[in-house]
Design brief:
By secondary structure, the protein is mostly helical. It is built from 3 helices and 2 strands, in the order αααββ. α1 packs antiparallel against α2.
């Protein structure tokens, strides 16, 4: 994941990395294991959804998921609303 050059590879790396801790959390304490597992699963699900939504906004603005191409695009274009990544080319 550290050498990833694409948003999709970063997402897959995060999901694979969290898979082990998601499976390990119900095994740590017997009494509260179900509650901990459910909380960790829901937190991971919401975090994944937010990451995918952000990646979709970046892809919609730049047209690519490659990090190098995204950096070149953002360096050469003017952003109207940086928070939402609405980008237009120089006139």
């Amino acid at each position: 994941m550290a050498q990833a050059n694409d948003l999709i590879v970063i997402f897959l790396g995060l999901e694979i990395m969290s898979l082990g801790s998601t499976c390990w959390s119900p095994l740590t304490h017997r009494k509260t294991s179900a509650e901990a597992a459910l909380k960790y699963f829901l937190l991971g699900g919401f975090a994944s959804a937010i990451f995918i939504y952000g990646a979709a906004l970046v892809y919609g603005a730049t047209g690519t998921t490659n990090l190098t191409t995204i950096s070149y695009f953002l360096a050469s274009n003017v952003l109207l609303h940086p928070g939402l990544l609405y980008a237009v080319e120089h006139c």
